[in-house]
Amino acid sequence: MANAARIAVVGSANTDLTTFTDVFPRPGETLFGKSFDLGFGGKGANQAVAARLCGAQVLMVAKVGSDLFGEATIRNFASFGIDTTHVQIIEGVSTGVAPIFVEPNGQNRIIVVKGANDRLTPADVDAAADALRRVDTIILQFEIPLETIYYTVRFARANKIRCIVNPAPAIPAELENLIAADYFIPNETEAELITGQPVRTPEEASLCAAGLLAKGFQRVVLTLGARGALVAGATGSTHVPAFPVTAVDTSGAGDAFIGSLAVFLAEGLSEPDAIARANLYAALSTTGVGTQKSFPKRADFEAQWARRRSESR
Ligand code: RIB
Asked: Does residue 251's CB lie within 6 angstroms of at least one atom of ligand 1?
């Protein structure tokens, strides 16, 4: 087996407080939910865990608060074997938290309070520079300051390290500071907010991806939930279909896609193959409750991959 992929995530770590409910309260109303789950999350942390479960060596660069959740978050990373040398506790600040509400069909609504994630600065990237220079791929999302994201994209470019930018959650950003990334990977909602173009049909997805390429991005992967993903570059776009599953909780599926895709690409798989596999990895994550705890281990993923491939022949 080839050397393990080496992935770094410069990003967020949250504690997820997930409530499962049939209906949402109206203003002033109190309702009973069905059940509750407390778990480790945050888009950056989830991507790191997905990459690790897929077999990569993973370095996390992050900040957590000096509360109950901060220390526990670091222990959680360590329990997966993720390098936490550059995960720092910030005194007097809360760890990022995410109240999540999940409907019976698995669809989720999330509010993120960034807390310590907002304190991750370019100086933290400099402090981790020696370790970052040794990785194949750096992954970024939008739950840390944009200034740090722009700085890390430049760092990756200067050091010839593959860089994946996942603009989640979508906020207005200076795209010219992101286009040096090798991959820009929004979902439909994020792509709509960033481009102002609708993404309701495969044709609209193609047009939206073309719009992002016109802004200077090299490769765009638009994730389309249960419809799979669309990859676009200078030579055109290709739709990579999803794998059908019965979803119970879609939280973290986008993160599962990104973390696993980074590993499959770093292992040298072709882009279509890597995206197809990441589609399945993400789909499998929706069949369990929570974010990180629903991500499959590599061996379980490979068993499902072999089964689904043989069924489709
Ligand atoms: O993508 C899912 C993640 O979004 C959750 O883990 C939550 O923490 C928010 O960051």
From this structure: yes
pLDDT for residue 9 is more than 90: yes
* Measured torsion, CA atoms of residues 285, 67, 132, 253, in degrees rounded to the nearest 10: 10
Whether the Cβ atoms of residue 256 and residue 220 lie closer than 8 Å to each other? no
Tell me the backbone φ, ψ of residue 182, rounded to 5 degrees: -75, -35
pLDDT at 3: 80
Strand partners of residue 50: none
Contact (CB, 8 A) for 187 and 195: no
Q: pTM of the full predicted structure?
A: 0.96
Q: Which CATH number fits domain 6-23+36-308: 3.40.1190.20, 3.20.20.140, 2.60.40.1120, 3.40.50.620?
A: 3.40.1190.20
Best residue among 118, 139, 190, 291 to mutate for probing ligand 1's pocket (most ligand atoms within 8 Å of CB) is 291
